[in-house]
Amino acid sequence: MDTSSPYPASVSNLRAAGPKRTSSALPGLAVQRANLEELRREWRRLYCSEPPRISRDLLIRGIGYRRQEIRHGALSKSTRRKLKTLAKMFQTTGRVAPDSGLSLKPGARLIREWHGRTHTVTVTEEGFEYAGASYSSLTTIAKEITGAHWSGPRFFGLKAAKGTRPDHGDDNA
Questions:
Q1: Is residue 25 within 8 Å of residue 8, measured between CB atoms?
Q2: Closest-CA residue to 15 (of 51, 45, 54)
Q3: Are residues 68 and 98 in the same domain?
Q4: What is the phi/psi pair of residue 118, to 5°?
Q5: pLDDT, tens digit, for every residue of 127-163?
């Protein structure tokens, strides 16, 4: 098993065809009463791989998640991308920053003028593209442009500075 990822390999390599249909499937509520060997057998049936060495409670949750995924569909590309970004952030820094609430779709362009020069960033499936190079964060691009540490979303006007309110054009208020 690859230990570089916090997730079992079976979670990231799900088969689109779904589980094998066998008569040994555990009914919904039976999972809660199942012993460890029955849970491992159900995991193998659903994920088509060996179960990770995790607690009984986590096996039950993984089985429940996979059943829900089979019934209702997998995560969207954008959600998977956000989770990968958060996992990478956790692996490199040991913490996860709160969600900024930004939802930029691939193909969107961010334009910022800085010291008389216009800078254009394109949102991609994997992150961002600027000046022919790929980046995983806007903050890295903002530093590349300015030479100083900036909040990327703030630099590109996606977020107001702390303590300020966005201008809504109400001069009479």
A1: no
A2: 45
A3: no
A4: -90, 130
A5: 999 999 999 999 999 999 999 999 999 999 887 666 5
